[in-house]
Amino acid sequence: MAKRTLYNKVWDQHAVTRLPSGQTQLFIGLHMVHEVTSPQAFDMLRERGLKVAYPERTFATMDHIVPTRSQQRPFADSQAELMMQAIEKNTKEFGVNFFNFETGKQGIVHIIGPEMGLTQPGMTIACGDSHTSTHGAFGTLAFGIGTSQVRDVLASQCLAMDPMKVRRIEINGELKPGVTPKDVILYIINRLGVKGGLGYAYEYAGDVFDNMSMEGRMTVCNMSIEGGARAGYVNPDDTTFDYLKGREYCPQGAEWDAAVEKWRNLASDADAEYDDVVVYDAADIEPMVTWGVTPGQSVGISQTLPDPAVVADSGERKAAELAFKHMSLQPGQDMKGVAIDVAFLGSCTNGRIEDLRAAAEVVRGQKVAESVHAFVVPGSMQVAKQAVKEGLHQIFMDAGFEWRAAGCSMCLAMNPDKLQGNQISASSSNRNFIGRQGSSTGRTLLMSPQMVAAAAITGKVVDIREFAGSGAKEAVNV
Ligand SMILES: CC(C)[C@H](C(=O)O)[C@@H](O)C(=O)O
Ligand code: SF4
User: Fold this and answer.
1) Are 114 and 2 in contact (CB under 8 A)?
2) Gene3D superfamilies given for it (predicted)?
């Protein structure tokens, strides 16, 4: 049976039945859980006297509310402490795997799944978190769900789902020096719009993704949701298998070989049919930075800011005008040279070891600008451990960065890490919505970790390609 996409194959393998509503009852291979969207779901189970159907397929961590400075219990914030106690109680009572601090494996939910090899090609993966699309980097069908669906998956390991359309996003050629996976996804969202992916799963294909590391693919898939696509994936290949081989939860020995054989066949057929195909040229992408309050309001770093007056769509025009007002930026100006107050390196988009390595290369031997508060928040305890092993934490601290403990941190500021007043941050995270980083007047500029590092050093937005810092030349090719 040819002409099928990975989406078709994985969906069909997990379809239990067609529901009277027309939806498909889909079996979920892996359910990841965090402290924010799970308490009510567990409560609902309790109310109905239900158990977790497949505790061995359910894995919990805490990330959003975790303070990154001191994790001494009880947490200083009593709300956070209560949420912590809830997930401890729920995972214990329902027999769910829980990666707490003591395991050494705590971290952002979308970082720990892949790093432990829980995320494997061909799986369906759900989590009460929109950035679950990250796991699609491994050729999985992974999507965020709401709390009532978290309840459904806990109770039945199944979800009632509407089918998705598939858009193939093909980018061919070679990325220019200084252009990272973060720039690629910001470029895609800029071109297709923040709602362009509604109803779609995005399949990322072509030379750029074939040549991209797993970390890079995760960065891209992570932000699919910012383009409106609930899921995004890359077909599994040798890069995927090399990354997974030997990881804790992956099959070993003969079982591994059999699994790889099976996974290879999941990739979309060469003649697969798509609902839509867009093709871009890698050479057209340059380092990107957002200027507005959605991840789609971005420019290439050498371009000037757009003029809302010439935007045809009245809704978009208004949105752009509001964004300019909030950001105190002007149409026609450069982003290069905009002063920043805070530099945040972390999040499930860019808090992996490869991101920290690349940023450390930019920072090595330099000093953070006096006007900037710069800090690094590894995506997980294991990322932190590896970074320490490689001496990256020292490079950051010598430069004047704070080195913190794993968590979501200032990505959404559900913890003490918050912007103050109208501070501007250079941030390696994924959302620049108003108030996102903890202050209603705060301003967020999304960019690659390398660009965040360079902004921390110079105190302003720079073009990484022009950054004269030692190590920058090596870093730009990551
Ligand atoms: C708290 C959680 C529900 C939320 C999400 O779903 O994405 C958060 O992770 C975010 O990034 O905004
Ligand atoms: S790091 Fe940010 S985007 Fe990722 S799960 Fe945490 S809050 Fe959500």
Assistant:
1) no
2) Aconitase, domain 3
